[in-house]
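Notes from the 1:1 (GR / supervisor)

We went over the backlog. Supervisor wanted to see one worked example end to end before approving the batch request, so GR pasted a single chain during the call. The sequence is below; no edits were made to it. Supervisor asked that the structure be written out right there so they could see what the output format looks like.
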Amino acid sequence: MYKLRLRIGCYPGFCILAFLFLVPGPVLQAQSDSLNMVKYTPEFKFREGIFLNHQQVNNNKPIPKSRILTSVDYSDRDFYIKALENKTFLFYDHIGMKQEVKTSQIWGFSRNGVLFISLDDKYHRITIVGRICHFVATVTTYDTRYYDPYYYNPYDYYYRSGGYPTNTQSSEMRQYLLDFKGGKVYDYDLQNLDVLLMQDPELHDEFSQLSKKKRRQQKFVYLRKFNQRNPLYFPKN
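Structure output shown during the call:
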């Protein structure tokens, strides 16, 4: 092998060809892929458009405005929200065929390079983007309560036996995590963060050694640490 390298050095033109044969195929493929990818930073801008699913987000390939079938003005600041108000979403695919999908199944959209994810029939900005994303959403909660079986109605002037349910609804803000690799959304709590940190065993061990109080206090610190140690990469625009 050593003699072969010396001999190749005498013929520069042949050297390149020989090197390509000597380098394993997977290595060349990995090098090629890395050249076509860019590391995510806060300055990164996602392509403008609607993402049908999480895979399109990973590939940074949304449905652009030019392929969306809607009566909404393209210059409207809330174009994407209004274009997704109907139960179905119409668009042209990459070969010009008209397609229709349920709006409830759509992942979300990108506006001005920022991601908005669908949850509880609304769209919420992802404030921290990384292998573990963080966002806040306003969700509707429902509460069903049963009153005393001997209910007195002062307007009817009689007692009515038998319990009856009453439903109340309210809105509240909650925090969520998004596993960018798998696309699943989790509640932002200690247990779910602990599971997601397992993707980095060394960091997870460090986190596990803290007291429960410290882990609660430093959830956000370790979320950021994880993202710094495990960066996201996207295809170059």
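Supervisor's comment: The longest strand covers residues 132-146.
Batch request approved.
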